[in-house]
Amino acid sequence: MMTVMEYAEDMNKKIEEILNACKSLNINVSNDSDLLSDEDITILDGYFASDNINENDENYDEYIDEEIDEIVEDIKDTKKIDVDNSISKQKLKKKNDINKNKKDFAQKKKEMYKNKKKLISNAPTNNSNIVLYTENMSIGALAHELGVPAAEIVKKLFSQGLMVTINTPIGYENAEILVLDYDKELKRKESADVTNFEQFEIVDLEKDLVKRPPVVTIMGHVDHGKTTLLDTIRKSDVASTEAGGITQAISAYQVKHNNEIITFIDTPGHAAFTEMRARGASITDIVIIIVAADDGVMPQTREVVDHAKAANVPIIVAINKIDKPGANPEKVMTELSELGLTPEEWGGETLYNKISAKQGIGINELLDNILLISELKEYKANPNRYAVGTVIESRLDKHLGPIVTVLIQNGTLRIGDPIVVGNAYGKIRTLKNSNNEDITNALPSQPVEITGINEVPIAGDKFMAFESEKQARAIGEERKMQAKLKENTSKTALTLDALFSKIQEGIKEINIIIKADVNGSSEAVKNSLEKIEVEGVKVNVIRSSVGAITEGDIVLAKASDAIIIGFNVRPNNSIKDYAEEQGVEIRLYDIIYKVVEDMEAAMKGLLDPEYEENILGSAEIRQLFKFSKVGTIAGSYVVDGIIKRDSKARVIRDGIVIYDGNIGSVQREKDSVKEVKKGLECGITIENFNDIKVGDIIESYEMVEKER
Question: For residue 155, what pLDDT is reported?
């Protein structure tokens, strides 16, 4: 906050000029001592910034292309202008056109600020009869909260014998008495923590919600026509620019059908789609699964179905390439019905469209179905609040800095808005729509490209716009610090150990992924698990397939909070490490009844205790003593930790474990002791093992029950 006078000095403008601008922008101030809020300052910044547009303005660098650079060179070299005056005239005309566009855009920007309705903050709203008190609040700030001139408050306090100015802090007790004169109640401000805004619940009144476009993702087996379908919808030629015809990057854009807008998000594959879900980015309203009529359901198609169903959104099946020889749409419908996608015409709930993306057959009907689902689901958002949404993709440009494609999910994003994106922050410098056109604001369900933030975020990061740059910077820096503290930790997916407590908390379904050696085994395990029902909780098998456990399985498990059951399969070390890193539990079995037994026991909270190894210490054997009654005693030196009597022990020779058993006794000089610490000598016997040698290492350890 600052006074009108302070802002005028800061902007090097006359106070009258500031007051006139405030009047035209409906900012409630009347004299130079009145306070401007952070939001008022942001609006004024934009208003005055658009008054003085020139080609060097950093906000308009994107308008300057290589041709303008050439014009500058022409001006420097007058001979060149004389030689080719006509070309120079053309270039200068183009430059004038560009400058005219810049002026037009500046006017739009100015109108955006001038006619802007004040957006609703994403922070909780307070009762209009309550005035919030902050620590060391100034009289000017209190006047602003009351909505009265600061001079009025100063006069009241003068009459009570208090010599104050608008910058004098006012105590809570005095402020409490003061606000009673205005029939208001004073309360201490408890600022809502919006640092973790992914978990921040934004509540909109029904009257504030308006219809928004549906957001659609298309997924399918490689080369089944996904990009060609999007090309046809966009009436463009994206596919020919892709390497090998395979989509290389995520993109998002909007199309119009029957005067309704639809947003499409094009992803490289289901893994990226699910990675974003795993990070809490639920951006898709509808999933289209595309299947080639001549190929039918492929292994990757089955994976796509698993991912789409796990997202719990409406699914439309597009059977593509119906014009090709060998096309068999009925076969595709039968195969997908077996995966739970029964066509509506067969009595199911899934909409099917038979199309040829290449020939443009059936595309209108597909778009009609998207709009039908949108109408039934009534997708809505509130455009009159600060924007929230998700990063679709990002890149670093050496001239413009971080360039980020975001999807607005609620609210309106405008040029000049302070913003936090993941752990980055900044102020929106430019906004471009999916046609690469400059715009001043973006509405719900609209994908836009933004510049102005300080770092490159990653796909799936959430963003939120704020009222002030100061607030955005503070939140961004706090999030970055928290991320550093948490970088060695990750979300823990559901485990069998945690099942019972989860059930007590109200969980109704347990998600399971089954990977088995043969199809018969996977089906048998699936059927057995789905029959279990304990305390009204059911097992939900979201994937059951044959083959080794893969990274894709772990990604899906993390996104869906699932447990992976491996039957007669063993993950390699890299997969084990990845599962551990992602917090996903893998359980391995070779007997079906044991799978069922463990699941039932976990659901009832009756799992047998689980133990983990705790290394106590190690000792190096330096001398051997043989006694007929005792056996061989190892004269040892404790090199690490402690050696404990009755603990478990292993004998290690040249890095190889040659025996695993128990320590029989530990002696220190002539006394039998319970343990010996690092740096001391002792005699050790190993139960039932005498084949020890000088140089062997004795490692003492114990098995400790893991906390459930």
Answer: 84
Q: What is the pLDDT of residues 545-563, one digit of tens each?
A: 888 898 888 988 888 888 9
Q: If residue 233 lies in a helix (H) or strand (E), which one and from where to where? A: helix 226-234
Q: What is the DSSP letter of 239?
A: G
Lowest mean pLDDT, pick from 66-75, 160-169, 542-551, 677-686? 66-75
Element (H, E) at 627: strand 611-627
CA distance 182 to 163: 21
Domains identified in the chain and CATH numbers: 130-188 (no CATH), 210-381 (3.40.50.300), 388-486 (2.40.30.10), 499-604 (3.40.50.10050), 611-705 (2.40.30.10)
548-553 long-range contacts, Cβ below 8 Å, gap at least 24? 548/515, 548/572, 548/575, 549/515, 549/575, 549/579, 549/586, 550/575, 551/575, 551/578, 552/270, 552/271, 552/303, 553/513, 553/515
Number of C-beta neighbours around residue 588 at 10 A: 15
CA–CA gap between residue 425 and residue 471 (Å, rounded): 10
Percent composition of the chain: helix, strand, coil (DSSP 3-state, to 5): 35, 30, 35
Answer whether residue 53 shows pLDDT above 50: no
Tell me how far apart the alpha carbons of residues 142 and 157 are, in angstroms, rounded to a whole number.
Answer: 13
499-549 pLDDT tens trace: 666 655 556 678 899 998 887 788 888 888 888 877 667 788 888 888 889
Distance CA 515, CA 543 (A): 8
On whether the CB atoms of residues 275 and 307 are closer than 8 A, the answer is no
Give the single-character DSSP code of 116: P
3-state secondary structure of 157: helix
Q: How far apart are CA 297 and CA 306, in angstroms?
A: 13
pLDDT for residue 408: 95
DSSP class of residue 585 equals -
* C-alpha–C-alpha distance, residues 128 and 113, integer Å: 25
* 3-state SS class at 308: helix
127's tokens:
């009762």
Q: Which two tokens stand for residue 33?
A: 């001592």
Residues in the chain: 708
**Residue 431 tokens, joined:** 């906004």
Q: Label the pairing between strands 2-3 and 35-36.
A: antiparallel
Q: What is the mean pLDDT of residues 324-348?
A: 92
